[in-house]
């Protein structure tokens, strides 16, 4: 089984001890805020504002987790463009994360509308049907409070070829084993003209600051994990997964290799995906100049690609 979010499989014992899935998911949200001092919200706001979803498009938010990106996409379309046609499918491999997302989105106006769907699925194969989580014991009905919304069963959607206008993946691709497969699937499901957009931890490439960031991640993050989530090992692993992830130019090349046109390439520019002129590649490969956008000195980075 792949548990994704925490990067390392939770042992079944930990699962049992924690019992209620929602408490796990809510500690993630708390941890996100604590680790980034809330800045992850600004990164996500910026990511979505720049994508500017509108015009009744079909969005697929892969590794959507508790819905941070999906909700922002729908809110942006509605608030900035009075668009109530744009649709979001929130896809995640982890049923408990998806459940937490459902519980959260059940409180919004998008609940029970065509605008919102949830799907269990694997970013590496968006046609795959995963095993459903076991049904809850009938006794758990007694624990459910009457004002809790009834959640629909988690669906398995086969995401079809060329069916998506906007593919987003935020802080999710790092957890996947085969990044090339994820990119290939993104390319398959996007319509021509569709955009792939990835928000992920990057590398800080500012002299002096990189060392400071390294020290912070190694000294502070695992301890925060220990104190706030009673889980030092997972947060230790998080730091390692961030360091293992490709550099900005390396990942940009992977996006291009999957068949996408990078921001700044003549074709992408022509169809509305301009370069980020301030970003020069530091490894001398000019073909990826302007292909990504660093946020907070590269602690997070946005990469995009267009399928044409
Ligand atoms: N996108 C959300 C956000 O930005 O808040 C959630 C990010 S969370 C750090 C990573 C998510 O990736 C988890 O919900 C995890 O279950 C999911 N995930 C990990 N591997 C996956 C895979 N192969 N396919 C789909 N989702 C995956």
TrEMBL record:
- Residues annotated as binding S-adenosyl-L-methionine are 66, 92, 122-123
Which top-level group of life is the source organism from?
Eukaryota
Family per UniProt? Belongs to the class I-like SAM-binding methyltransferase superfamily. MenG/UbiE family.
User: Function, please?
Assistant: Methyltransferase required for the conversion of 2-polyprenyl-6-methoxy-1,4-benzoquinol (DDMQH2) to 2-polyprenyl-3-methyl-6-methoxy-1,4-benzoquinol (DMQH2).
- In short, the EC number is 2.1.1.201
Keyword annotations of the record: Membrane, Methyltransferase, Mitochondrion, Mitochondrion inner membrane, S-adenosyl-L-methionine, Transferase, Ubiquinone, Ubiquinone biosynthesis
Record localization: Mitochondrion inner membrane
What membrane topology does this protein have? Peripheral membrane protein
Q: Give the stretch of the parent protein shown, with its full length.
A: 71 to 378 of 378
Task: Kindly provide the name given to this protein in its UniProt entry.
Answer: 2-methoxy-6-polyprenyl-1,4-benzoquinol methylase, mitochondrial
Q: Outline the subunit composition.
A: Component of a multi-subunit COQ enzyme complex, composed of at least COQ3, COQ4, COQ5, COQ6, COQ7 and COQ9.
């Amino acid at each position: 089984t792949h548990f994704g979010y925490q990067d390392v499989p939770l042992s079944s014992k930990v699962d049992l001890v924690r019992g209620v899935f929602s408490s796990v998911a809510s500690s993630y949200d708390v941890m996100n805020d604590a680790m980034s001092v809330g800045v992850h919200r600004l990164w996500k706001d910026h990511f979505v504002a720049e994508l500017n979803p509108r015009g009744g498009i079909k969005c697929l938010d892969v590794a959507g987790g508790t819905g941070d990106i999906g909700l922002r996409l729908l809110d942006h379309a509605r608030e900035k463009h009075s668009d109530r046609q744009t649709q979001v499918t929130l896809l995640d491999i982890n049923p408990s994360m998806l459940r937490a997302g459902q519980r959260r989105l059940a409180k919004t106006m998008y609940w029970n509308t065509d605008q919102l769907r949830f799907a269990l699925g694997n970013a590496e194969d968006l046609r795959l049907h995963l095993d459903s989580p076991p049904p809850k014991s009938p006794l758990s009905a007694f624990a459910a409070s009457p004002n809790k919304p009834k959640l629909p069963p988690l669906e398995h959607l086969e995401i079809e070829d060329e069916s998506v206008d906007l593919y987003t993946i935020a802080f999710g691709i790092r957890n996947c084993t085969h990044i090339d497969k994820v990119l290939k699937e993104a390319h398959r499901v996007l319509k021509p003209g569709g955009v792939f957009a990835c928000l992920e931890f990057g590398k800080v490439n500012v002299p002096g600051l990189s060392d400071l960031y390294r020290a912070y991640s190694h000294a502070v993050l695992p301890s925060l994990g220990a104190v706030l989530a009673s889980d030092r090992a997972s947060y230790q692993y998080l730091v390692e997964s961030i360091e293992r992830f490709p550099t900005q130019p390396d990942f940009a090349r992977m996006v291009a290799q999957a068949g996408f046109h990078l921001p700044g390439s003549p074709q992408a520019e022509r169809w509305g995906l301009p370069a980020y002129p301030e970003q020069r590649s530091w490894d001398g490969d000019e073909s990826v100049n302007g292909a990504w956008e660093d946020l907070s000195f590269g602690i997070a980075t946005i990469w995009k690609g267009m399928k044409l």
